[in-house]
Amino acid sequence: MTTVSTAVEAPHGPGGPHAAASARQVTKAYGAGETRVIALDAVDVDIALGRFTAIMGPSGSGKSTLMHCLAGLDTVSDGRIWIGATEITGLKDRELTRLRRDKIGFVFQAFNLLPTLNALENITLPMDIAGRKPDRSWLDQVVETVGLADRLSHRPAQLSGGQQQRVAVARALASRPEIIFGDEPTGNLDSRSGAELLTFLRRSVDELQQTIVMVTHDPVAASYADRVLFLADGRIVDEMAAPTADSVLDRMGRFDGKRTS
Ligand SMILES: Nc1ncnc2c1ncn2[C@@H]1O[C@H](COP(=O)(O)OP(=O)(O)OP(=O)(O)O)[C@@H](O)[C@H]1O
C-alpha cells in the first residue's frame, strides 16, 4: 500500500494512477447495540483502471455494501474512499450527487427505462437532464458496441429483456463515466441474454477502455472479468486473476457451510 495522500486535489488517489477507485480501512456498520452488524470490516482495495473486476462471496458477505460505498451511494462508518483522484468520503451531498452524475455509471438488475421514450432517448436521458451534449461519435461507438444500432427508435416494451438491459448499459456508457458499477446486472436475464450482456461489458473494457465493477453470484458471469475479489464476513479474503467459471466455482465451494447465493 502506498502512502495515503490527504490532498483532495492530488493527481491520483492512494492506489496510484492505475486505480479507478480505492478504499482504505473502510468499515460499515449497520444498527447499534445487540443488533449491530459489521457489513464491511477495514477493507482495503484498489479497482484497476480500464479493467473488469467482479465481486463475489457468500450471501451477506458485504458485496452490495462494498459496491454502494465505493459508488458513493452509501456512507461509510469509518475509512476513506476515492473515485480516481477525488476523495468522496467527506463530500457534501450536493458534491457527491454531482460526482456520481459526472463520473459514475450504474447498471442494476431493474433496467429503469422510461416506457414513453425510445431506446436512443433513454440512452441520452441522463445527459439531457445534466444539460450535456452527447459526443456523437462516442455515442455511435457505444450503440455499435452494444449492438443496438437497428433498435434505437424502439420503445422498451418493443424490446426483449436482454435488449432492454443493453439499453441500460449503453445509457451507463454514453457519458463516458470513469467507472461503471453493476449490481447483478445479468440477474434478471435468461442465460443467452446474460451471456450477450457480459460480452458487451467485456467489449466495452477491451475496446472502449471502460472500468467496470460488477457484483455477481454467478461464476460464469465472474469469468468475464479480469479479476475476482472474494468477500467473506465483510473482508476481502482472496482474489483471482484471469478467472474461469470452474476456478471461481471451486473457490466459492471453499466457503464452508456458507450459502453462496
Ligand atoms: N440497511 C441495512 N440495515 C441493516 N443491515 C444491513 C443493511 N444492509 C445490509 N445489511 C447487512 O450487512 C451485511 C452485508 O450485506 P450485503 O447486502 O452487503 O451482503 P451481500 O454479500 O451483498 O449479500 P447478498 O449476496 O445476499 O446480496 C448482511 O449481514 C446484511 O444483513
How would you describe what is shown here?
This protein is α/β, with parallel strands linked by helices and 261 residues long. The protein has one domain: P-loop containing nucleotide triphosphate hydrolases (Rossmann fold, 3-Layer(aba) Sandwich). It contains eight helices and ten strands. The strands form two sheets. The chain has a six-stranded mixed beta sheet with strand order 6-7-8-3-9-10, with helices on both faces. It is globular, with a radius of gyration of 18 Å. The mean pLDDT is 89. The site of adenosine-5'-triphosphate has 12 residues, from strand 2 and helix 1.
Give me the side-by-side strand order of the main sheet.
Answer: 6-7-8-3-9-10
Order of helices and strands: EEEHEEHEHHHEHEHEEH
Count of DSSP-assigned helices:
8
Give the overall shape.
globular
Are there runs of 5+ residues with pLDDT below 50, and where?
A: none
Number of structural units classed as domains: 1
Provide the CATH top-level class.
Answer: Alpha Beta
Q: If classified by CATH, what would the architecture be?
A: 3-Layer(aba) Sandwich
Question: Which characteristics define this entry?
Answer:
261 residues; alpha/beta; Rossmann fold; four-stranded antiparallel β-sheet; 8 helices; globular; binds adenosine-5'-triphosphate
Topology at a glance:
Elements: E1 19-30, E2 37-48, E3 52-56, H1 63-70, E4 78-83, E5 86-87, H2 93-103, E6 104-107, H3 119-129, H4 136-145, H5 161-174, E7 179-183, H6 191-208, E8 212-215, H7 219-222, E9 227-232, E10 235-241, H8 245-253
Parallel strand pairs: 3-8, 3-9, 6-7, 7-8
Antiparallel strand pairs: 1-2, 1-4, 4-5, 9-10
Bound molecules: adenosine-5'-triphosphate.
Adenosine-5'-triphosphate (ATP) is lined by residues 30-31, 37, 39, 57, 59-65.
